[in-house]
Specification:
Layout: E1 5-9, E2 21-28, H1 31-44, E3 48-51, E4 57-59, E5 63-70, E6 75-80, E7 84-90, H2 95-104, E8 129-130, E9 133-134, E10 139-146, E11 152-156, E12 177-187, H3 197-202, H4 211-214, H5 219-233, E13 242-245, E14 251-252, H6 254-263, E15 269-271, E16 277-279, H7 281-287, E17 294-295, E18 298-300, E19 307-309, H8 316-334, E20 343-345
Parallel strand pairs: 2-5, 3-5, 4-20
Antiparallel strand pairs: 1-2, 6-7, 7-12, 8-9, 10-11, 10-12, 13-19, 14-16, 15-16, 17-18, 18-19
Bound molecules: flavin-adenine dinucleotide (FAD) and uridine-diphosphate-2(N-acetylglucosaminyl) butyric acid.
Residues 130-131, 198, 233, 244-245, 248-249, 268, 280, 282-283, 286, 291, 304-306, 341 line the site of uridine-diphosphate-2(N-acetylglucosaminyl) butyric acid.
């Protein structure tokens, strides 16, 4: 039987450590409890917020609905062939522990995504990515429950419509499903992806070096290098509340980029297959003078200007007010509009 707790403080359950209450909170550990919680919400006509590690949300106010903390557990290989193993993980598994487990059982391909906070079930929502790998390259399918009907649904990788920090779950399927498990197609052989500059530097590879040297790294060595880079740049939410990158890296057209590069020859950019150019938002914010800024409870991380921190455990409003100031400053300096990465609730 699920336990429904009224007026529940969520401060411990979001990595920005914002104090805000859920009208009701329930932790679900089984499929039956998911269905019971959905029935509870339906009877009271409450919106449902599926919660994982709370590492990509901003609580702007109390949540007028049911927060369903997803605690479904379990990891199992479900199929294999000569090259691949399909591994299914329940939505409530911790992402990083799952990645480590895969390495331990000799299933490779997720090592570049080491140490990303949060749960397996949230990973498809924004198609998590880091150090040259995105979830969409490894996800095979996912299982979900329709919030309105309680019926099970399967999404193939294709039907998730993945893109950079984007999926169908941010558009037509927004707020419609509880993801219950995700199945990954992983490799039996290690295939290093070592193009990302800071990862190459960490592994002491030449900036434009070739494949032979790269073949010698084990998946665990790559994971350890990713972990080391992350620990250097990103604040640990356990000591410094934050939600990782607060903005997405913006995409601009080729003409806009050419004009910006004229003015800022050292601007950091990543050309895209469609001709557009992705800019490093952290660089834009840094060069606009924000890195290390602090005002009251909130701050801009001193090692990574893309990360807003909440050392004073201030309100969601104060975090969003700083984000707004940064957005306006970046627009006035570069004419580029930044978009928030975390989801703001209630919305
Ligand atoms: P939550 O914050 O709990 O939820 C996020 C969204 O997903 C919410 O809308 C929620 O309702 C929804 N959701 C959660 N679980 C489910 C479910 N089971 N079914 C349906 N919807 C669900 N992200 C990257 O992509 N790359 C990075 O390198 C990265 N680095 C980070 C570093 C730090 C220090 C931090 C704090 C965050 C970082 N993030 C990064 C962002 C974050 O870790 C990811 O977005 C992660 O997937 C969020 O997982 P979560 O369980 O904490 O999600
Ligand atoms: N940079 C600066 N100053 C800064 C921050 C960055 O000049 O204050 C420059 C760096 O020197 C580098 C470039 O900007 O040349 C990119 O920086 P970094 O490698 O740190 O990556 P990022 O683009 O800022 C993205 C993701 C991260 C992910 C890393 C590694 C987004 C929004 N963020 O950050 O994801 O871990 O790449 O792949 O795409 C997250 O989503 O929460 C997150 C942390």
């Amino acid at each position: 039987m699920a336990l429904f707790l009224p007026e529940f403080d969520l401060q411990r359950f979001n990595t920005l450590a914002i104090a805000a209450r859920a009208q009701f909170y329930v932790a679900v550990t089984t499929h039956d409890e998911v269905l019971e919680a959905l029935a509870f919400a339906r009877e009271r006509q409450l919106p449902v917020l599926p919660l994982g590690g709370g590492s990509n949300i901003v609580l702007a106010d109390n949540y007028p609905g049911l927060v369903m903390h997803i605690k479904l557990r379990g990891i199992e290989p479900v199929a294999e062939d000569a090259q691949s193993v399909w591994v299914r993980a329940a939505a409530g598994e911790n992402w990083h522990e799952f990645v480590q487990h895969c390495l331990m059982i000799g299933c490779y391909g997720l090592e570049n995504l080491s140490l990303i906070p949060g749960s397996v079930g949230a990973a498809p929502i924004q198609n998590i990515g880091a150090y040259g790998v995105e979830l969409q390259q490894r996800l095979s399918e996912l299982s979900a429950v329709d919030i309105r009907s309680g019926l099970p649904v399967t999404f193939t990788a294709e039907s998730c419509n993945f893109a950079y920090r984007d999926s169908v779950f941010k558009h037509s399927a927004r707020d419609r499903y509880i993801i219950t498990s995700v199945t990954f197609k992983l490799d039996r052989a290690v295939r290093p992806v070592l193009d990302y500059p800071s990862l190459r530097q960490q592994l002491q590879l030449e900036p434009d070096g070739g494949a032979p040297a790269e073949a010698h790294f084990s998946a665990q060595q790559i994971a350890d290098a990713v972990i080391a880079v992350r620990q250097e740049k990103l604040p640990d939410p356990a000591t410094t509340p934050n939600a990782g990158s607060f903005f997405k890296n913006p995409l601009v057209d080729a003409a806009t980029f050419a004009a910006l590069q004229q003015r800022y020859p050292d601007i950091v950019s990543y050309p895209q297959a469609d001709g557009r150019v992705k800019l490093a938002a952290g660089w834009l914010i840094d060069r606009a003078g924000w890195r290390g800024y602090r005002a009251g409870d909130v701050a801009v991380h001193s090692e990574q200007a893309l990360v807003i921190t909440n050392p004073g455990r201030g309100s969601g409003a104060s975090v969003l007010a700083l984000a707004d100031e940064i957005t306006r400053s970046v627009f006035s300096q570069y004419g580029v509009t930044l978009e928030l990465e975390p989801r703001v609730y209630p919305a």
